[in-house]
Amino acid sequence: MTKWNNLLPKSWRAKHINFYAPYLGAGIRLKDVDKYYRKFEVEMPLTSWNKNIKGVHFGGSLYSMCDPFFMWILMENLGKDYIVWDKAAQIQFLKPGTGTVHATFEIEEEIIGSIRSELEVLIKKDYVFSTKDYTNILDNLFSLFKINNDFDI
Fold this sequence. Notes:
Helices cover 32% and strands 31% of the residues. The chain is of the alpha+beta class.
């Protein structure tokens, strides 16, 4: 997140992501976020703005729906001493999205603690996280870094 964005309260950022232009246009809604910012629930109804030529959810909208949340969880929970880069993602369409698509993004406290411990030793490591199973699967690959003097992406 940009530095100016860090000046805004977490709750403001969470409430206002629904007004982010790509989300607003596609009908993507952040429905719930837990108080620790470790679990996000998102949905997207099928509308004329996000249908593809076959009349089902456009893959780009599905990807957009899933894109920021694992990174957001890691950034909020690891803090400013860590750099989180979303390096890659993969989406596998299990069936056509014909109704409202729901996804839950969660990284448990124990996993975040393990990541923090590993990065104290390794300095840099890639991690992969998956959404909770609904109508699509998205795997995101993140490269996480502990900031130090010889930092190199």
